[in-house]
Amino acid sequence: MPPNAPIVTIPKVRADVPADILTPDLLGLRPPSPETLGLHGKDLDVDELERDLKDEAGHSPQEQRNDLPDQQANDLLTATAPIRGRGVPQIQRTPLGQQGQQATSVVTDLGYQLHSRIRRRTNSDELSHEYDSSSGDLQGALHRAMVYSGVCGRRFLPCRRLPELVNKVSVEAELKRFQSITERIQTHFSPSDSYEELANRARQICGLTKQSWRAYPEPVYGNVARRPPSREKTYRKILTILLLIERPSRIRHFIDAEVCDADLPLQRVSTNTLFKSKPWTLGRKSSPNVPLPCFANWRHATVKAFEATQWTVIAPFLGQDERKLALRFRIPDSAVLPFTKWERVHQRGGSGEVFRAEIHPAHHDFDDFLTLRASKKHVFAVKRLFSFSQDEPKFRHEFEVLRTISKNPHPHLITLLAAYEQHGSYHLVFPWARANLLAYWKDHNGSPKNDAATACWLAEQCAGLASGLATINKYPTLSSDSMFNRLVPCKSNTKRNSKALRQSSHSSGPRQLHCRHGDIKPENILWFPGHNRDGTPSRGTLKITDFGNAELNTSAVVPWKHAPTSPMYRPPEADLPLSDYVIRYLSYDIWGLGCVYLEFAAWYFGGWHGIEAFLNRRWALDNKFLKFHTGTFFDVHNDSGGTPRARVKQGVHDYVNELRQDSKCTHFFHEFLNLVCEQMLIVEQEGSVRTGAGHISAHIAEMLSRGKQDTKYFSEPCPCCRPGEDAP
Predict the structure, then answer these.
(1) What is the domain partition of the chain in residue ranges?
(2) Cα–Cα dist 142/549, whole Å
């Protein structure tokens, strides 16, 4: 790491909380009853309240600081200064010229600042309605507002409900109610506050006072450090936690110590004491060794309850940065994910498994990517990678590839919305697709209409998929570009490629990054249903996904053994046993795309049965995996000199000829099949090369344009008997 790269230092949140403390109803709270004079729950009696009042009367935060050693007191005063301890990572500005040398898309504050920025942008602080405090049951209202997480079964309070419930009116009513109770019990422990003082404290809790924060650096998004406008400190979440653990009177200790909502989550701090009854207390993340004075006289069970309950009010908020690029969230293991539903989808890819997740609408900023708007469900796809903490570079690689692709959004490429890490696993969040292309062919449209509209849609999607590949094939970049530095090029044993890499690493001029997907197949193409302008359902859009095998390289050629691919859709050069054989880097995907195009045509002519019939024609013992039968599109044989040669399987040629003779074959499909067989499914030997994705997309676009001018192009049957024979 460069010496002046931005450094984010934040300690891990300890998750070694006993299981009984992590349960949603850890205190057995009950609604308020008049028999207890408004005191909620069975655990808080008059004696407990008297002890609280004695604590308040006998130990102020300043006195607690005076009881500490000089050095510890100085550390504590420094930690509680207004510029420190706001739960914000300490970030150094990146010197000019070194920007981009450190990943700047990592969020470690559970999305707190991101949510604050979005609130300011949308003016969502103006509440549509506030909680009616006339019932005096704020604690009960908070419990009723809780939502269960489908991931862990624990509860969380949606962030949108917090300002609705904990507002100036309800807080002031709660403070007055509690003061009236204390006056009925004992009056000599502490003087009563006037109603004006209570009103001022309510405004302070809700952040309505004139005192505001001084500006501090936000996490750096996109290599640009921005400072937010001044904002008010709030204690809404702190008060909510205290209400849930039935200690609302202690809010004044937090206000005096300036421990506000932005400091959450608080983390464990060792007390360095011989008494096992209280081995640790709580402190700020920014001052990991300094205990907070507001917990000085708490019983350890109450401190544990506060630590466990704090996670219910700080569920993560997921969103994108200001450039609409995905962010990477580091979420503590104790955090409650705001996923109201979580179910595994019965499909497992080569690099991960997919879950269907409903994210609470108040905890994401992905409304533009909702695919089930009609049902008003906030459903997304979450891919959990088959890698653990020791494989973090693999996760970072796929994240950076997807984030790079999202810099230039394409309608036929999947958009990464966010990524997060929790419990040692890595997750990627995407828009929810109805099915992949193989499932679409089988389950959603197994018997398509053989009309011009279907053929036109097929052509549009094939042109779009090729255009998407062309988009990712080449990226212009500079030597100081962070994306180039974060994505490690493929290793090469050839002198030609090694020299190119050495030159590119020291170059400051424009360069090209060549991106290869590496796993083009129907399972990695998603179908998103859509709607026309009049609201009627459309045929939808296909998008390329799963960039787990994607590679970026500075050279257009790499050794064949450094290019992984999918078994059934792999190109012939993957099986040729030539140790020094160098492939054209981007043509790998063209072969796979050509295979998908032929299966697309088989679906048009025969539906799902056509797909199966085509597979049976190709089914044979695999050249590479000799113990298995596969449906590859080529085989390998030895020529007269004993040299291995690859060729397109005869079964592929025979099936294409049958499609040409089909009574439903039109002018478009003749030209489409010619394009696939003559420019895509090419064995690259002795000078023959495949056509690039950009030219393929342009060719199909010309075919679409021709169909708009000539209505017979997509609809008039013109079967022929042999390849190359002119249609009648």
Answers:
(1) 34-88+133-210+232-313, 338-431, 436-715
(2) 46
Q: Are 271 and 279 in contact (CB under 8 A)?
A: yes
Higher pLDDT, 689 or 58: 689
pLDDT score recorded for residue 557: 45
We find that the CATH architecture of domain 436-715 is Orthogonal Bundle (1.10)
Is residue 59 within 8 A of residue 191, CB to CB? The reply is no
Average of per-residue pLDDT across 107-136? 71
Other residues' Cβ atoms within 10 Å of the Cβ of residue 179: 17
Given a contact cutoff of 8 angstroms between Cβ atoms, the answer to whether 429 and 416 are in contact is yes
Higher-confidence residue of 667 and 495: namely: 667
pLDDT digits 0-9 by tens, 291-316: 999 998 899 999 999 999 999 999 99
Token couple for 299:
């019983």
Q: How far apart are CA 324 and CA 304, in angstroms?
A: 39
Considering the domain 338-431, what is its CATH architecture? Answer: 2-Layer Sandwich (3.30)
> Is residue 598 pLDDT above 50, yes or no?
yes
CA-CA distances (angstroms) from residue 265 to 61, 109, 310, 314, 582? 21, 9, 7, 8, 53
Task: Compute the distance between CA of residue 251 and CA of residue 178 in angstroms, rounded to an integer.
Answer: 12
Predicted confidence (pLDDT) per residue in 538-556, tens digit: 899 999 988 766 665 544 4
Alpha helices in 123-212 (DSSP H): 138-145, 161-165, 168-185, 195-205
280-283/418-422 β-pairing:
unpaired
Structure tokens at 32: 């308020």
282 to 214, 247, 260, 302, 644: CA distances (angstroms): 25, 16, 14, 11, 69
pLDDT mean over 317-338:
94
Instruction: Output the six-digit token pair for 109.
Output: 């504050």
Q: In CATH terms, are 338-431 and 436-715 the same topology?
A: no
Closest CA relative to residue 193, chosen from 138, 252, 237, 141: 252
**Amino acid, res. 255:** I
